[in-house]
């Protein structure tokens, strides 16, 4: 070992140099090219230039630091290193130019890099004729960042990175390969050694409990075929089947189905039942099964639980092949504090707020993104665009929007920090959501976004230019709570809850609503939907049939969680399959048949979907018959004859000669009856068609089935 080495040499050897390119690699000194290489465990190293000239590099530190002069003054060379009895030719990572361009750094600094995922993370590339992987990661407050992985024995001293711009660390590692596992080794601003960090922009990850990122070559991936145009339009039928991929169906040994196995059965099932869309609970990589994906650590990686990213492409493609749109639950509201994830990423609160009054969710024990930080907003917006571009996803449902909008969300008095005006609104989150929606619709005009927003925040689904948040749709949580409360009552008490059915129509067109019967309604002691129904066995199923028919007749797009379509009796359990054996029972099979027919009717009749989000498409006919628990209304389409009369009887009594006025005289055909024996009902109805009693004031005399809903349309 040579004495009196410069401080930089010791910084390299000790693995704490913040700019290794300043010392390692080729350097011009006194008109000569000096090469310095750090190769731990190497006993000898030569530099071989592009002409075959060889120079011995002197070992100047026992840890593996070598220095020498290049022959012929060339800066293109390889290193020939001896490890024990093996000699290996290596390309020196420290002789290659930067990865990020000055324009990249400008956009990154400005926070307007829409394709962040093309620059940050790990990307196969060719530099100066050499194949390898370029790694880039944001860590502005780190003292040193190294890449560790399969390609360097997970030794952080082998591949320290250089920092550029406002904290973007980068390094091209020659001969690293797609499929290699890797992480980032970071020394924080105070010199603290942090836990190894997964790549925030990794496209693939190990199966839990392992947490390494995996290099993926996107150029080798296929691209799903597109979904039908206008599948998300306001005037189109939209009936969503919400799915947790890990528990929809399982193998006999309770193992998950893979993405490809799901592709063989799920799209066909959804198509057969007539749903227009599937919505997957978050597929982003996440460490804990019990979070259902709502605590993601890998925003850009489909979870490895069910296969590879290419396998996930196959599932999306299979859905689109069946003309089914695909929506993803997306979680920009919070993230877990697992040590390998985003928390305290560079030794500071880089992605989260440092103050727990702003940065930690009380309900979930998770961390809140700092929406006031340019890099954070750029990451999240780019991630939304990534799923739409890379995987041809048709829309994103944004989870827990209310928790983002309010600084005092689920916090006690004094347990939150007001905004600059002293209010409770999270101004930075509002700006982020508006930017997210603006950029999604600008780049993907056929896509849609939906907000799970549980408060009365105004104009959630109105355009940003009109001071809205810009979402395409909003979940109607009020409708769900009110109507489930109503239908859960014993019919004898429903007259006291009559307004819970009426109230939703007072605001039904203030937003573009989706009516959600989601996973949240069948867990945590709430019971299944069939489990909430009152009465004996027959009444319970009749109640549920009536409720589903009411939902499909009500203005708004539809969403139903898996298992609800055949009246699963128990609460949903993410650790096991749905109870498919229930379909052997006629009552459960009847519910499934009803859902198939309701979806078919909803899609077939313009009156039931064309004006879902327009007040012109709805007219109350009967609202005041609380004593008999009866409601009636007309749904309308754009065409003057596109009309559907809906009469709901939420009592167990049969009503004959029940008079209901209609807009047109003549014949009206009963096109669906939830009490049909086809579905397990008592078959009380109107024998196919009825005629108006008076031509001047058209009125129908109807037989109303017990706990039943009927749909009638005018005949030409």
Automatic annotation (TrEMBL):
<dbReference type="InterPro" id="IPR004193">
    <property type="entry name" value="Glyco_hydro_13_N"/>
</dbReference>
<keyword id="KW-0321">Glycogen metabolism</keyword>
<feature type="active site" description="Proton donor">
    <location>
        <position position="452"/>
    </location>
</feature>
<dbReference type="InterPro" id="IPR037439">
    <property type="entry name" value="Branching_enzy"/>
</dbReference>
<dbReference type="InterPro" id="IPR006047">
    <property type="entry name" value="GH13_cat_dom"/>
</dbReference>
<dbReference type="GO" id="GO:0005829">
    <property type="term" value="C:cytosol"/>
</dbReference>
<keyword id="KW-0119">Carbohydrate metabolism</keyword>
<comment type="pathway">
    <text>Glycan biosynthesis; glycogen biosynthesis.</text>
</comment>
<dbReference type="Pfam" id="PF22019">
    <property type="entry name" value="GlgB_N"/>
</dbReference>
<feature type="active site" description="Nucleophile">
    <location>
        <position position="399"/>
    </location>
</feature>
<protein>
    <recommendedName>
        <fullName>1,4-alpha-glucan branching enzyme GlgB</fullName>
        <ecNumber>2.4.1.18</ecNumber>
    </recommendedName>
</protein>
<keyword id="KW-0320">Glycogen biosynthesis</keyword>
<dbReference type="InterPro" id="IPR006048">
    <property type="entry name" value="A-amylase/branching_C"/>
</dbReference>
<dbReference type="InterPro" id="IPR017853">
    <property type="entry name" value="GH"/>
</dbReference>
<dbReference type="InterPro" id="IPR006407">
    <property type="entry name" value="GlgB"/>
</dbReference>
<dbReference type="InterPro" id="IPR013783">
    <property type="entry name" value="Ig-like_fold"/>
</dbReference>
<dbReference type="GO" id="GO:0005978">
    <property type="term" value="P:glycogen biosynthetic process"/>
</dbReference>
<keyword id="KW-0328">Glycosyltransferase</keyword>
<dbReference type="Pfam" id="PF00128">
    <property type="entry name" value="Alpha-amylase"/>
</dbReference>
<dbReference type="InterPro" id="IPR054169">
    <property type="entry name" value="GlgB_N"/>
</dbReference>
<dbReference type="GO" id="GO:0003844">
    <property type="term" value="F:1,4-alpha-glucan branching enzyme activity"/>
</dbReference>
<comment type="subunit">
    <text>Monomer.</text>
</comment>
<keyword id="KW-0808">Transferase</keyword>
<dbReference type="InterPro" id="IPR014756">
    <property type="entry name" value="Ig_E-set"/>
</dbReference>
<dbReference type="InterPro" id="IPR013780">
    <property type="entry name" value="Glyco_hydro_b"/>
</dbReference>
<dbReference type="Pfam" id="PF02922">
    <property type="entry name" value="CBM_48"/>
</dbReference>
<dbReference type="GO" id="GO:0043169">
    <property type="term" value="F:cation binding"/>
</dbReference>
<feature type="domain" description="Glycosyl hydrolase family 13 catalytic">
    <location>
        <begin position="242"/>
        <end position="596"/>
    </location>
</feature>
<dbReference type="InterPro" id="IPR044143">
    <property type="entry name" value="GlgB_N_E_set_prok"/>
</dbReference>
<comment type="similarity">
    <text>Belongs to the glycosyl hydrolase 13 family. GlgB subfamily.</text>
</comment>
<dbReference type="GO" id="GO:0004553">
    <property type="term" value="F:hydrolase activity, hydrolyzing O-glycosyl compounds"/>
</dbReference>
<comment type="function">
    <text>Catalyzes the formation of the alpha-1,6-glucosidic linkages in glycogen by scission of a 1,4-alpha-linked oligosaccharide from growing alpha-1,4-glucan chains and the subsequent attachment of the oligosaccharide to the alpha-1,6 position.</text>
</comment>
<dbReference type="Pfam" id="PF02806">
    <property type="entry name" value="Alpha-amylase_C"/>
</dbReference>
